[in-house]
Amino acid sequence: MVLMTNHFLEHPREHTQLPHFTKSLQASKSSISEDLDIIHEMFQEAGIGFLERVAGAAGGVKYIPDYSARHSESIIQTLCQELEDPKRILPGGYLYMSDILGDPKMVRDIGRVFASIFSTLDIDVVMTVATKGIPLAYAVAEFLDVPVVIVRRDPKVTEGSSVSINYVSGASRKIQTMVLPKRSLQEGANVCIVDDFMKAGGTITGMISLLEEFNANVRAIGVLAEADDEEDERVIDEYTSLVKITNVDLQKKQIEVHPGHFNLDKSYHN
Known about the structure:
Blueprint: H1 2-10, H2 18-25, H3 29-46, E1 49-54, E2 60-65, H4 69-83, H5 98-101, H6 104-117, E3 125-129, H7 134-144, E4 148-151, E5 162-168, E6 175-181, E7 190-198, H8 202-212, E8 217-227, E9 240-249, E10 254-259
Parallel strand pairs: 3-4, 3-7, 7-8, 8-9
Antiparallel strand pairs: 1-2, 5-6, 9-10
Helix pairs in contact: 4-6, 6-7
């Protein structure tokens, strides 16, 4: 049972036929089936997902990572507390977040929360822009069992021909460029955009425009932190954020961080 549990945790959303377990563990189908029932119940009780089983000759089982609302809220509250540390304030009112994005456990938890919220969507690929959003994108993609596509500011010779677009940065209002290799994304793909931080949403708007060149469909947008800045008009309406930075007082060295723009109830099964 321990080996089966480890298999599911290491291979989320991967369909596994029962003969795989009967052969590798040298156990009967009835014994494997009983163990699957127990693992399914324990996953649900722990609030970390469930086993989805398919009957028939081609049937099998796969683990669906799905954090309970209780687990997700706990992670989001931890993020709020971490980001309210006044030592994080940088010149210009920005916050230092590199330590969070460099913490494998925290990034993995964040990825599982996003994947749970987006679990009912038909997503083919997770997209982000280099560089800070890359760890988050890989964490989300791991639990959705899809590849990652990285948009860059400059083309790489090793990536072949690319599609490039110009976009207006929401913060600086400058014209910037982003590129995506033609081979990295199939035409008509369903895409989940992930980014670490959003103010007005100019960068995400640029990625959406770039995806239009591939006739791709934006199915979800996930942002770790958004800034609630009245000076910058938001150009993105449909998105999910885990935390919202509502006030950064440089004089008093105070930061206000609250839960973001999300719905934990729309995709949970327990």
